[in-house]
UniProtKB/TrEMBL annotation:
This is DUF6694 family lipoprotein. The lineage of its organism: Bacteria, Pseudomonadati, Pseudomonadota, Gammaproteobacteria, Oceanospirillales. InterPro entries: DUF6694 (IPR046516). Keywords: Coiled coil, Lipoprotein, Signal. Residues 1-18 form the signal peptide.
Amino acid sequence: MWSLLRLSALSLTTLMIAGCSDPKIDTSSMPAAVVSVEKVRDSLPAYKRDEFDQALTIIAMSSFSGIDLLNAQRMNAAEIAESANAYMHGLTGDEIIERADKMLRERRAREREQALQTLDRLETKQARAEHDQQQRAQVSIESADYYISTSPYGAFEPVIDLQVTNGSDQEVSELFLHGVLTSPGRETAWVDETFYYVIAGGLAPGETAQWSLAPNRFGPWGNDQIPRDSQLTLTLLGINNAQGEPLWNSPSLSENEVAKLEALRAEYGGVNAHTAN
């Protein structure tokens, strides 16, 4: 008799424990999901319900790309069940909150890793561009003058006198130049264009040479309205070596890349992208 009473008491205790266990999300069907989500929410303390709502939304949104998990908005039970039943079936309210928190941590870790990779890429690109700019500066334009001469046949011919020094350790065969021709009192340039100049025989390291270039007299350089007091500004944009291959031509950062780099440095400036993980 006593054994039967003990067995009955044990069975009753087991049933009470089972009956008092935390309710779980059931996404086996849409009606079950709708009911179970609300039941799980109601079982939580009031102070946890907002956190639970946000956790449900974060889990549901995790199956979509382009969703901002850090600023999730509450979704109703039907939307949640339809979009994320595989992620939350059988979970209690606290487990839902824990899973959402884990998703956010993983998301932040991925975003941080991507940001550090972008930071490393932009810093590498900037360093290469600065290095190449310094190397390119060793080939310098000593002087550049524009004037109109008269040919033996009486025709007006535009001329650019150009003197260049090759202070680099590479032979130079071709120059890529940007020329701007202006005159006092005139806002618009008479000429603003880029052009190549092929150096006959090349320019060896340490050499200085002077050439007289003959732009097309039927183009903008040959405009007979250009005054004699015009000023020529030549900028060296690129250099080719003896084989005709570009030297020191790493591109600079774009304006958007500069802004991105500054923002990443402000946030991750003290982190080494190679050792962050």
